[in-house]
Design a protein that fits this description.
The structure holds two protein chains of two kinds.
Chain A (H helix, E strand, L loop, with lengths): L2 E5 L3 H13 L4 E6 L10 H7 L14 H4 L2 E5 L3 E5 L4 E4 L4 E3 L2 E4 L3 E3 L13 E2 L4 H10 L5 E5 L3 H10 L5 E6 L11 H12 L3 E5 L3 E5 L2 E4 L4 E3 L2 E4 L3 E3 L2 H5 L21 E3 L6 E3 L4 E3 L4 H15 L12 E6 L2 E7 L4 E7 L2 E8 L2 E8 L5 H9 L9 H6 L8 H9 L3
Parallel strand pairs in A: 1-2, 1-7, 2-3, 7-18, 9-16, 10-11, 10-16, 11-12
Antiparallel strand pairs in A: 4-5, 5-6, 8-17, 13-14, 14-15, 19-20, 21-22, 22-25, 23-24, 24-25
Helix pairs in contact in A: 1-8, 2-4, 2-5
Chain B lengths: L1 E5 L9 H9 L6 H5 L9 E4 L4 E4 L8 H5 L5 E4 L2 E4 L9 H5 L6 E2 L6 E2 L13 H5 L5 E5 L1
Antiparallel strand pairs in B: 1-8, 2-3, 4-5, 6-7
The chains are: A alpha/beta, B alpha+beta.
Chain lengths: 410, 143
Amino acid sequence: MSKIVIIGNSAAAVGCVEGVRSVDKNSEIVLIASEKHHTYSRPLISYLLYGKTDEQRMKYRPDSFYSDNMVDTMLGKTAVSVDPKGHTVKLESGEVISYDKLMVATGSSPFVPPMKGLDKVEKKFTFMTLDDAHALDKAISAESRVLVIGAGLIGLKCVEGIADKVKEIAVVDMADRILPSVLDAEGAELVQKSIEKHGVKFYLNDSAAELEPNKAKLKSGAEVEFDVLVVAVGVRPNIALLKDAGAECGRAIKTDNKCQTSLKDIYAGGDCTESYDITIGAERVLALLPNAYMQGNTAGVNMAGGEQLYENAIPMNAMGMFGYHMITAGSYEGNVYTEKEGENYKKLFYKDNRLMGYIMIGDIKRAGIYTALIKNQTPLDSIDFELIKQKPQLMAFSAEDRREKLAESH
Amino acid sequence: MKRIYVNEKWCLGCHLCEYYCAYANSGKDSMVNALKNVKINPRIQVEEGEGINFAVSCRHCKDPLCVKSCITGALTIENGVISFNHDKCVGCYTCILSCPYGCIMPDSEGHAVQKCELCTKNACGEPACVKGCPNQAIVFEER
């Protein structure tokens, strides 16, 4: 019987627990995490403020998760170093925990760039954890003017969460469009217009040159008054623990297709790692919850002596803003097929006989059929591409493929 | 485990499965109340092509991408059935992004999703689409 130690308590850690237990019911599992909370879904913090969930429902797994899976938790404890030779983890408290296999799922942290005058701002927040959400919620009122720096996924979901609770809300981003990592210019404009209907003001191609306690002077010369500042410009992977231990790192921790790091008996997954994105053929950080789960699950299976490979990671996002939905996946390279009608917008990107990526806004029905084409690298000449361009459908596959999909067990 | 399988050669494209599905999951006690003048939003969908039709509903995969991708834990595997907890769902649609068969869809209110649960949670008790199919193009069996 071996001892598995997991550092982290979010999607990759939970995926690891479930991966281990799918193979091995007996090994000891110890889970160490800085946060004291039961595992919760980080992306739900915006829905918590929006009123679409509560702390009980946002638990990522049931209350009985740790006992059901025989996990000994050490919550509220922070790991400060790993000794890969001695197979031990040292905690801030001084405790030393030994392991046979170690999973590092330390996630990422909000990046706060140096900004002139930031230290003078009294009410400033990042938006990553449950505690962040509570702190922000406490600081805002119906009279608040809020400035959000960053029009990415985190910044905009924060906007959605609090827009109806505050008086004014403005968003600044250096990029020329909102959601620059997810949308193209045309799609971003559609979504931006829809968000603006909720009273949100955007300052794009702009940045906060200087902050005063209640005012931001933007590079463009514009001035935005605020009571509460949210910094959501991006996240940085938490790699120090393993980098200091000698693990190979790029922008984040490197892992192989079994989610093992360059160090013996040490695995990693989630926001602290790089993934091999098959749509660009290179490693990059894919800080997305489903990706974290898949990596963690793969690591867990392999740590427990099973065999599972994770080799079809792609960027992908599903996101809604005030009920207006968008689903995107892959890379936006190659030939483009566009459909636009009213609030519905679709773009498919394809090259070398493969679907590379897509954007669907408004009508997102059956988007996963497109996602599967990208993940499986389905040769487009093996399906009726003209048909599937119009809408995602299984009819576009060959009779044999349809039989396999619909008349066989999976 | 018994799952739903379709044989497109026998499918007439009559859409009765969609109506039976919508009725079974409506919670209403008569077809008229459930379906008349209602734009149905069934969990099984008939695809129509040139001389080919077939119904598509959740495959209840053994290794379900929707469950692994769900950001809330609303989708789980219960005795092999991919089950959905409406109470936990926030309608982010990550499952719609993930399902390779296109079998999870927004519910009628648009605040959450819906999917086939093999009629395990409604009064029908066994898949209504299978019971209602006039030509046995949809079956519920072990394969």
